[in-house]
Design a protein that fits this description.
This protein is an alpha/beta fold and about 375 residues long. The protein contains 13 helices and 18 strands. The protein is globular, with a radius of gyration of 20 Å. The structure holds 5-S-methyl-1-O-phosphono-5-thio-D-ribulose. The site of 5-S-methyl-1-O-phosphono-5-thio-D-ribulose (MRU) has 17 residues, from helix 2 and strand 11.
Length: about 375
């Protein structure tokens, strides 16, 4: 997608042929800064500190983390060390273990001397596959947006509510929840996006609003608590969110607050779609509430808020008493019964075990 008109992916190999470029997402929307990952430890830090975030991009960064580890030492021991270090960065997005398993599978039987080249080749494939998957999600989601647009008075936009950032910044390109939005916009279908700010880290306010703005997509930032109210007033035609882990029975784990949006959507008859690549499905997990590890993050994300002052200087300020106890669950689970449909690279799939297994027979038995 474009930044100031220039096409970017969220991760790339630099001109030196080995170091890995990323966008430091902690600085957006105030500063667009790219940086280079030079070691596996850099990659692990970038994931843990959320310079990169979003399930598919976490997976892609981990894949390149393995490449950087192999450059330093391509032994079995270092492969295992890199796997464990990268695996420990963030617990909820299953794309992380998917990418690490995939890299290990591709490297294990390869002679040590060939591992660097094999690793970079496979990491590039993972990225290209992610882009193709997101494009496909976009095409399938576009059909849904088109169908809603057909029932709108001419020129009136389809109002889409989204939570967190499941945009191109969360994937390698296009995004999952945003891919149908970008494609609808390109197809000339009027769309308008309600962007949940997404406390505590405000990925909606800082990332989704920024990337939609870069592409000229009409959007409005709202507080996290506004969605239900807007739905009651007929101002939301559909919700599309992303997911960090989807279980084999169609339960969806996504950024904290997603569940409340799904409840409000059901109460108001608003379709609630989840856009996901198959790499986000955890075929071993059944009941999402019981089976998915929920990341617990620092209380500082809740007690403090960061931004820029009117001169552009970055500021972090406290918003709660210094001794207030804090709990910060980063994700929640939306049960399959609240999900209207899963927008996957293979089309719209009902959120249940039978439909998922039928859509992905090659993956569901693995
Ligand atoms: O904590 P984050 O910013 O990594 O959480 C991201 C989300 O919850 C996204 O909605 C999810 O990863 C889907 S990304 C296509």
């Amino acid at each position: 997608m474009r930044v100031d008109g220039k096409p970017y992916r969220t991760i790339w190999v630099e001109d030196d042929g080995w170091s890995v470029g990323i966008i430091d997402q902690t600085l957006l929307p105030h500063d667009f800064v790219t940086c280079r990952l030079l070691s596996m430890e850099d990659a692990a830090r970038a994931i843990a500190d959320m310079l990169v975030r979003g399930a598919p991009l976490i997976g892609a960064t981990a894949a390149y983390g393995v490449c950087l580890a192999m450059r330093e030492d391509a032994s079995d021991e270092n492969l295992a060390y890199a796997y464990d270090t990268l695996f420990a960065t963030r617990p909820t997005a299953v794309n992380l273990s998917w990418a690490l398993d995939d890299m290990r599978k591709h490297l294990s039987d390869v002679p040590v001397g060939d591992r660097v080249a094999t690793a970079y080749k496979r990491a590039a494939e993972i990225c290209n596959e992610d882009v193709a998957i997101s494009e496909s999600i976009g095409r399938h989601g576009l059909d849904l947006v088109q169908a809603l647009a057909a029932h709108k008075p001419a020129g009136e936009p389809v109002n889409i509510l989204t939570h967190c950032n499941a945009g191109w910044l969360a994937t390698v390109d296009w995004g999952t929840a945003t891919a149908p939005i970008y494609m609808a916009h390109e197809a000339g279908i009027p769309v308008h996006v309600w962007v949940d700010e997404t406390r505590p880290r405000n990925q909606g306010a800082s990332l989704t609003a920024w990337e939609l703005g870069q592409h000229g997509i009409p959007h409005t930032l709202i507080t996290d608590n506004a969605g239900g109210h807007l739905m009651q007033h007929g101002l939301v035609d559909m919700c599309i969110v992303g997911t960090d882990r989807t279980t084999a029975q169609g339960d969806v784990c996504n950024k904290i607050g997603t569940y409340l949006k799904a409840l409000a959507a059901q109460d108001n008859g608003v379709p609630f779609y989840v856009a996901l690549p198959s790499t986000t499905i955890d075929w071993q997990a059944g009941n999402g509430v019981a089976d998915i590890p929920i990341e617990q993050r620092s209380g500082e994300e809740v007690s403090h808020i960061s931004g820029a002052d009117e001169h552009g200087a970055r500021k972090v300020i406290r918003i709660s008493p210094s001794d207030t106890p804090i709990r910060n669950d980063a994700f929640d689970v939306t049960p399959a019964r609240l999900v209207t449909g899963l927008i996957t690279e293979r089309g719209l799939v009902d959120a249940n075990r039978t439909a998922l297994a039928a859509a992905f027979p090659d993956l569901s038995d693995s």
